[in-house]
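Onboarding guide, step 5: your first structure request.
Type a short instruction followed by the sequence, for example:

Predict the 3D structure of this protein.
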Amino acid sequence: AEVGYWQLSQRKVQNAADIAAYTAAVSMRSGNNATVIEQAASTAAGESGYLPGRGTIVVEQPPVSGAFNADTTAVEVVVTENLPRAFSRFFAEGDVQVTGRAVAQVEEGGSSCVLALDSSASGAITFIGNATTYLIGCSVHANSTASNAVNVTGSAAVQTPCVSATGSVSADSGLTLTECSSPRGGATIEPDPYASVPEPEFAADSCKSQTTFGGKKGSVYNITEGRYCGGMKVQRTVNMAPGTYVIDGGTLDITSTATLAGSGVTFFLTNGATVKMNGSSTSTLSAPSSGDYEGVLIYVDRDDPYATHKINGNSASVFDGAIYSANGHVDILGGSTSGGACTPIVGRTIDFSGNTNLQFDCDEEDLAENPASGRISLVE
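The system replies with structure tokens like these:
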């Protein structure tokens, strides 16, 4: 009976060590220091049945023994309890010590260039239809807790270093991972990488006089930054000077006959404005390389209601810069392409559909502020 009690106590201590190691890894992944990590582990062990008055808990980051010795992505927890003897005290002296040891590891991730911020949506990121997407140097992540937070289905083909979700990933044979061995579920929530980007300031009475650029075939317009009230409609060739273009209400409508070009530009959409780019249009656009809107090509007001923004373009189109719609749906469809540029997409929800043919090359870009979350696993 006493030996059975020892065995039961050892199981309890091992369970406390497992939970404490996992909790310590969560704290480590959040960037906490050693003291905070140890406190988190001790609290978790105590709540799991460990009795601090009977033993000790030691937290080592990195581990000092085992297969993950000196591995900075891992944390080791050793829990001991000293059990007073009962009948066995007639045969031996001293307490009986039981020990539990566990090691948890935070798996490394890449950098997310496709990020859905919705916390619960099914298919928060969906690849469907004949969409073909090649992501170089960046990964896919959804903050949704749904069982199909990232959904790859139909004839869609996706090649990316890693795919992760706070919930789970549902993918068929169309998904190819170049770095991770499998999709990662149970990852942490990623923060909005553009949450601190300010909204542009513009005068309430500063509307541009011309917002439609049509006319006969061959017409060319040269436009400058400013506030375009009621939307902007591009039907012919438009060359944009560097700057911030505020679309105040209406639609940024790039029609099938349009050719739009601009370097160092940012579109800011507010008051319910949406984007609609036709699949036959040609757009060659790049974001600023410095300043408040460095790397941001399309920025939708965070306070705007949920709406769909449709991004199309022909095979000659290039979008070099982020598409950001924290509270909107971004629909990449038709024959759109990024032309091999780096085009991070951050939206509440995101779809890749139709005959989309995309290649994002972010291998040379610094996406460190938006790291793909690593999964935590008990490895020892």
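Each response can be followed by summary notes, for example: Residues 368-372 have pLDDT under 50 and may be disordered.
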